[in-house]
Amino acid sequence: MLALLTATLGAWAGFAPESFYRHGPVPFVDTGWVATLPPYNEHLVRDYGFMNLGMTVVFVVAAIRLTPTLVRTGTAALFVFAVPHAVFHSLHLDHMSDADAAAQTILVAVLTVVLPVVVFLMAGGLERAETKV
Question: Which of 12, 19, 52, 120 stands the most exposed, by the fewest C-beta atoms within 10 Å?
Fold first, then answer.
């Protein structure tokens, strides 16, 4: 799931930064949330995209190898970005409608903090499985 999330956001922002800025960050749903924090900066949007694609590499390798260390390292690296990202967005909502603010806060928290926490904790099960082999 994390690889799919980062690959989708990464490809969109990296290869179509203006589209991501105007319509993103939810694929196939034109929220326009990114554009509510102007100005547009192609360099920063592309950097965000390719950073996500870099994380995709880590998540794909972790999914293939399924070692607790790789899974936890990948999710920990995502936390370094995701926690400050979620905090920033939760503190900068005055430019959005109440409905958009609530939806964005929930979406950012679930996809970039809660989901990685679940994956991080599930890596403990991998550790127990490795010791039984």
Answer: 19
Among 71, 58, 67, smallest CA distance to 115 is for: 71
The pLDDT tens digits of the residues spanning 43-81 come to 999 999 999 999 999 999 999 999 999 999 999 999 999
The sign one gets for the Cα dihedral 56, 57, 58, 63 is positive
Q: Considering only the C-alpha atoms of the chain, give the largest distance between any 2 of them, rounded to a whole number of Å.
A: 54
For 12-55, give the DSSP string: HHHH-HHHHHHH-SSTTS---TGGGSPPP-HHHHHHHHHHHHHH
For the chain, the residue count is 133
3-class DSSP state of 67: coil
